[in-house]
Amino acid sequence: MTASSFRLGDVIDDYCPRCKLLLNHAVASMVEGKVVKVVCQTCHSEHPYRNAEVPLKKRPGPRTVLFEEVLSKSPPVGPAEAPAEKLPEEEPLAPPKKKRAVTPARYISRHATRPPRSTR
């Protein structure tokens, strides 16, 4: 479809800033035959028509760049390079405690009930 053949309610593709995806949108408003606002069919947010252009990714900030530079210069420390220290032997773990028998659940009801049967 060309730009002049769109009508209100037509479905077109556009970038949704809320979903951050290129999704189906419905034409919400037009000025002089051009689409001005659209409504996302997924999240129902209304936003200006962006001509289906996905925005560029943000550049990393100066702190991030400096941090990555420092990390790239430092030597990697792996488990093989770490000094071997003797760890004190730990005492064996105690066996897990036995679970107590669970009592049956008590349900609240609005009508009179009989007391539970005793098992003898």
Taking the alpha carbons of the first and last residues, their distance comes to: 82 Å
Read across the widest sheet, the strand sequence of neighbours is 1-2-3-4
Q: How many distinct helices?
A: 1
Estimate the helix proportion, in percent.
Answer: 10-25%
Q: Rough shape?
A: flat
Radius of gyration: 33 Å
Biggest pleated-sheet summary: 4 strands, antiparallel
Overall pLDDT level: 82
Number of strands: 4
Beta content: 15-25%
User: What structural class do you assign from the helix and strand content?
Assistant: alpha+beta
Low-confidence segments, given as residue ranges, are: none
The H-and-E topology, N to C, reads as EEEEH
Features:
4 strands, 22% strand, 1 helix, four-stranded antiparallel β-sheet, alpha+beta, 120 residues
Question: What do these coordinates show?
Answer:
- The chain contains one helix and four strands.
- 6% of the residues are buried.
- The longest helix has 12 residues, at 62-73.
- Strands 1-2-3-4 form a four-stranded antiparallel β-sheet, with no helix packed on it.
- It is flat.
- It has 120 residues and is α+β, with helices and mostly antiparallel strands.
- It has a domain at 3-48.
- The chain has one helix spanning 62-73; strands at residues 11-16, 21-31, 34-40, 46-48.
- Helix content is 10%, strand content 22%.
